[in-house]
Model the fold of this input.
Amino acid sequence: MQKRNLNLPVVPVADALSLFTRALGASVEARFKTVATGDSLGRVLGAAVYARSSSPMFNASAMDGIAVRSEVFLNAGGEAVLLHEADFASVNTGDPVKRPFDAVVMAEDVVEREAGAVEVRARVACRQNVRMAGEDVASGEMLLPSRHVMRPVDIGLLLAGNIAGVEVYRRPRAAILPTGTELRAAGSGGYEEGDIIESNGGMLRAMAEECGAVCTLYPPTPDDPAALRDALKEALSSHDLVVVNAASSAGTEDYTVGVLRELGEVVVHGVAMKPGRPVILAVAGGKPVIGAPGYPVAAHLSFRLFAAPLLRNLSGLPDGAPVVRARLSGGARQKPPGAREYLRVRVSCVDGAFHAQPLGQGSSSAASLVKADGLCLLGESTTRVEAGEIVPVELIRPLEAVERTLVLRGPHDTLLDIVRDMMSEGGHSLSSAGEADGLPALERGECHIAAVRSPADDADAGAHLKDLEARFPGESIALIKGCRRQAGILVAPGNPLVIRSRGDLAACRLAKDEGSTQSALAAAVASGSADAGLGSPSAARNAGLDFVPLDAERYDFVCRARHVQLPACAAFIQTLQSAALRRRLEEAGGYDPSGCGETRTSGGAASA
Done:
């Protein structure tokens, strides 16, 4: 059994990057190749490209007609001009326009007369209807700069400039080596207790390809130093960068650091970052090797910080993601000094201002990466960050997508999953963050819409609006009707604890509903980690649970009236009103969508 390194020393992120870069030296340099221009789509130019020929290469007619000398029209009156055979030349689009001719009259403005003469009924000026030589591309002109990513229109431009081949960055080759005897492929079946589905490898491979690399994903290597050594040697022989996933920490089967010391130099083992502390940075055979921790978030962040910049540089792609300044929502956050922490956050853009809502920060939560729009960086010296503080956020979703997303806060319901799916078909995006009460976030301007629960028999929308007006003084508020839904209790099959009412829940381990989806609540009950949870009939049915019905309730939405006209909000309301949504709610069961999407504005009438 190998000796554990339980007191793993760590170095700051900036120092780790500096040490790693210095150890690699000039061994990691971009290489180039020449490809046919027609095959260059998506490739990154290694050098600026200059036109070898002009386009057009001669003065060319821009249309069908006749080439003429424009001077014949200078002294002509308002009548048609008669031209004889020597005064013009018939041309088609693209034909040369040769001296002494310097303009073209469209065929529609020419009438043929006897003896080869023509009558011209329109005047043309010098160079009119003529594409001059070099008008589109001039010989010697720089057409595209280096590091430009080729698009279809770029290919056309280069071919017009007589460029048959271009120098591009050679795509680097990356290898991903998952490790762990317990790893099993997704969909393989026959899983036993202790087996883990291998998922990090696919994520890391996609990240490498996103950085312009050609990537090889190796099958999982068992927890055996000899097997890991052989796999590393093979990967290093044919790749420019290798990422070993898992086995980087201090467990009894974490062999990566020992094997890397045999094959090369371990530059850093342990970086002052959270998550991702046990990351390994090494050089073997003159090539970078990164040992990424096994937890999904730590693996993602380790790759993002240490592998991505190397691959993007080798690919010729620009490094770095857009950073926005956002107001942090939620409560104050404490962190120990000395480590850099990366918070996964949802980012909303409301009325031009950005807001960052922290998500669950467990390193094993792959779902939090999917839900996150960005990473909020808390520096080594930071020990506390307050709610409302302006913080830097590095976006992991495109800025344009964040700005176009409709943001909703409040209790989650399956209805939102259906609406989000339907909105995406129309090119709109809905982000919903579950929490017990979304109105405070709406008050702070952190979202566009808040979901609200209300008694099912509360039919007085006017009274509800008056209550909202008192909460939002001086603002016009819109109440968007959702649906009446059947509330109830999710219990294990057969209801072994004989739960009949809310009062029976006092003695139960209740699945926490704040911030959770209906599926997550049902999963907690189905796994036995909770005795019961509040949810919907569809959630119970999908998880194989029993359902104890309670009183019905309304599930509606509130927003500022001015936001109703936003394209995404309009799409949200249209989706609520659609027959397709009604059909899907009927299939889910437990919903009464009567009037769904009806909107009433404070001080105004209801609208369908």
User: Anything to note?
Assistant: The chain has five domains: 13-27+172-315, 32-54+136-169, 60-131, 323-398, 405-607. The longest helix spans residues 296-315.
